[in-house]
Write a structure and sequence with these properties.
Elements lengths: L1 E8 L3 E8 L4 E8 L7 H17 L3 E9 L2 E2 L4 E3 L9 E2 L1 H9 L3 E5 H12 L8 E6 L3 E7 L2 E2 L36 H12 L7 H9 L3 H25 L3 E5 L6 H15 L9 E4 L7 H17 L2
Parallel strand pairs: 1-4, 4-8, 9-12, 12-13
Antiparallel strand pairs: 1-2, 2-3, 5-6, 6-7, 9-10, 10-11
Helix pairs in contact: 1-2, 3-8, 4-6, 5-6, 6-7
Length: 308
């Protein structure tokens, strides 16, 4: 039985799963990413779990794909990730491969999710699209000619760190005014606080419920978020000219507040030659399995496009 491992490294938890040749997740688990300054403990725990499950199925581990914040496809390293305790440049793919004894590839988590949309979602016939993750931050994967655009450095497509307002809100990357400080779940919360003058640590879910109840500040917070997101996506279209844009992640589930407003401001800010040519759609990836499927799609994509 041929099996592929998928790992999604997050700031708090790391998801891992084994997927068979049909794309079915056979096993999955969640580990605490941990607070150690080194990743060795996490890699050991993940590897032990993967190897035990593969042996239990009498299978063969073909490859392992990893999605991670600030993951570099070319180096296999996690580089200067602000939400992880491992500082600097961490050769995560190399360390994992040494444990698993199989090919390992690593990329940015949003790139992995974009690949998942192509292989397991609704973008199977799409050659040009953007994949936007709306969670704590804003992640993005750019697909052109059916392949992820990685760029010279391996970090192409950092739309969450396009500066919308010079000197604006503080961003985790160390700069100010990045788009993800306005167009994300965290950005929504910050906007709501500014509108209400409250300092409570509200969640985006709380604001969504308030908006459903008709609270003016909550509705306005969503409108401001959509205004920024629509502008960001319109500017992105001027550079990439995609067929469609997929929205994924917790904030995208506030469908009635995110999609109409974002589409409205998107169309208002589009150059005339692009009007009516780009759809904004919800991702078809299953929320709870998307990270694992996206990571596995990375090794499938890499095998087909570049040959391991």
């Amino acid at each position: 039985m041929e099996l592929w491992a998928g790992i999604d490294v997050g700031g708090t938890t790391t998801q891992v799963g084994l997927v068979d040749a049909s794309g079915r997740i056979v096993y999955k688990n969640t580990f605490l990413t941990g607070t150690s300054p080194e990743p060795h403990e996490l890699i050991r725990a993940l590897s032990v779990w993967i190897q035990a499950k593969v042996q239990g199925l009498k299978g063969r581990l073909m490859a392992c794909g990893i999605g991670a914040p600030n993951g570099n496809i070319w180096s296999g390293c996690i580089e200067h990730a602000p939400n992880l305790t491992w500082k600097g440049i961490v050769p995560f793919a190399e360390l994992t491969a040494a444990r698993l004894k199989c090919p390992v590839q690593l990329t940015n988590d949003a790139n992995a999710a974009a690949l998942g949309e192509m292989r397991f979602g609704s973008a199977g016939n799409k050659k040009e699209f953007l994949f936007i993750t709306l969670g704590t931050g804003l992640g993005s994967g750019i697909v052109t000619d059916g392949k992820i655009l990685y760029g010279h450095s391996g970090f192409a497509g950092e739309l969450g760190h396009v500066i919308m307002y010079p000197g604006g809100r503080d961003c985790g990357c160390g700069r100010k005014g990045c788009s993800e400080t306005y167009c994300s779940a965290t950005g929504l919360v910050r906007t709501y606080r500014e509108l209400t003058g409250e300092n409570e640590n509200h969640t985006s879910r709380f604001i969504y419920e308030k908006a459903r109840e008709g609270e003016a500040e909550a509705v306005e917070a969503f409108d401001i978020t959509c205004r920024h997101l629509g502008l960001l996506l319109a500017n992105s279209v001027a550079v990439t000219s995609p067929e469609c844009i997929y929205l994924f992640g917790g904030l995208s589930h506030a469908t009635e507040f995110i999609f109409p407003g974002t589409i409205k401001y998107f169309e208002e800010n589009l150059q005339q030659i692009f009007k009516g040519t780009v759809q904004i759609l919800p991702s078809a990836l299953p929320e709870h399995d998307a990270a694992i499927l996206g990571a596995v799609a990375l090794v499938h994509d890499f095998r087909e496009a570049y040959t391991l």
